[in-house]
Amino acid sequence: MPDTTVTLAADAALDLEWLRSSTAAALTLTQTADVMGVDPRTISAAIKRGELPSIRIGRRILIPRPLLLALIEGSTQSAAR
Q1: Residue 10's pLDDT is what?
Q2: How far is it, in rounded angstroms, from Cα 53 to Cα 7?
Q3: Name one Pfam family in it (predicted).
């Protein structure tokens, strides 16, 4: 099975461009918070409220990258109208 771990440099900026170019299938809570510019607890709360889709694998919570991109790009297109 191929290794799909995403390794980032310490100074790598996690932003929308990184999210678009990433090949990762899913992001951690911390990665998602960095991309969104919020605290990881805000991401956890959004998941609990059902506002953000997530996958639980054991104790780990992951956010599917394609769904996160669709949510972000859908909200930016709505705001542009």
Answers
A1: 46
A2: 23
A3: HTH_17
